[in-house]
Design brief:
The chain is of the alpha+beta class. The chain is 43% helix and 24% strand. The protein is built from 5 helices and 2 strands; from the N terminus they run H-E-H-H-E-H-H.
């Protein structure tokens, strides 16, 4: 990350402090919000039922529709303290390690 980008993204989205206040480590996160398309899912389930419950065949023969639509996306910088205190971020970091 170059200086200009670092300056633009150097404030923690949770506490509002600069990211280097307690540790040189910080995090950039992206949260994407999706909503299930229940009608598309019902159509696919119906096709699966018609084909004797074989989801693989229904997948190959179906319309290959979007089953979830992206609603919104947020990017955020987190200082190391807020990332550790945030349950979701801590859990995500544990799965990566």
């Amino acid at each position: 990350m170059r200086e200009i980008e670092l300056r633009e993204k150097s404030i923690c989205g949770l506490c509002g402090q600069k990211v280097g206040k307690s540790s040189p480590v910080f995090y950039r996160t992206r949260v994407t919000v999706y909503v299930l398309d229940l009608a598309a899912i019902q159509r696919q389930v119906g096709l699966t039922a018609v084909l004797g419950g074989n989801a693989r065949i229904a997948q190959a023969m179906g319309m290959d529709e979007e089953m979830a639509k992206k609603m919104d996306e947020h990017e955020m910088t987190l200082c190391s303290e807020c990332a550790v205190r945030s349950y979701v971020i801590s859990a995500a970091l544990e799965t990566v390690r």
